[in-house]
Amino acid sequence: MTYCRPELFAERTEEEKKRGRRIFVILLVSSILLTLILSGLLVYVSRVTYDVTIQIDNCEAPYKTREKTVDGALKEAGFWPGDLDIIKPGPNTRLRDGMRIQVKQVFIVKEEIEESTDFKTVEEEDRTMKKGEKKTVQEGKQGKDLLLCRVTYTSGKETDREELSRKTLVKPTDQIIHVGVIETIDGFAYTRKETFQATAYTGGGRTASGTRARVGEIAVDPRVIPLGTTVYVEGFGERRAEDTGGAIKGHIIDIYMSSKGECRRWGRRNVTVYLP
User: Fold this and answer.
1) Same domain, 198 and 265
2) CA gap 17, 84 in Å, rounded
3) Number of Cβ atoms within 10 Å of the Cβ of 217
4) Could you tell me the pTM of the whole model?
5) Claim to verify: residue 66 and residue 145 sit in the same structural domain
6) Residues 248 and 196 in one domain
7) How many separate domains does the chain show?
8) Residue pLDDT tens, the chain, 276 long
9) Closest C-alpha among 161, 164, 249, 243 to residue 202
């Protein structure tokens, strides 16, 4: 004979009721979600995590992100790129696993700097010194300028410099060197030599300098060879400029000779004249 315990039956009945209600709720929610998905009102998107490496200038570190683009990953990591920063790959590039994101920070600043300026070396002829001799008569000194520059730094290193303005603080002092120019020919010291056309004359009388016309003097254009200057004439030796003439213009000299025959034999020739 089987005895039935009503209280146990009642408990099982209540538990079954709770389980049935839970199943009903799950089925109801599933049905609603399925209806929304099929009607296009709900789209479920699974977000992928990317393992990337972020390098900013010379520092780099691994980073996990669910962002889709390079720009999104950088901002999520707390770095907001500047307008001039160089980003590789580009900010709008879609992420992929294992990607390396490189950022070079670019800064432009204005800087004032002092800059030394070189002096010039000036050589001057010295007619008291022999050719080949040199003597420094004034030491050169550097000057100093103040520059305003626009300087570009990329990853902490200077990559461009543009001069905006320059102001002279100290002018440089030229170095002055005297250079000897004296040479000699037959003991006559000269500093230069030039080609002249030479004619000849004779007949005595007085020169433009008031001296007696004689062998050893020449007629010149005073604008080219000043009167009273002693020169060395090729083939004749030293001659003194004492006379002038209406036809003696420019690089022409008239050499006094002892006779008309000698003058005719000479005629007109080019000669080298050595000048002091």
Assistant:
1) yes
2) 68
3) 19
4) 0.51
5) no
6) yes
7) 3
8) 333 344 443 444 566 656 656 666 566 656 665 665 666 554 444 568 999 999 999 999 999 999 999 999 999 999 999 999 999 999 999 999 999 999 999 999 999 999 999 999 999 999 889 888 999 999 999 999 999 999 999 999 999 999 999 999 999 999 999 999 899 999 999 999 999 999 999 998 999 999 999 999 999 999 999 999 999 999 999 999 999 998 999 999 999 999 999 999 999 999 999 999
9) 243
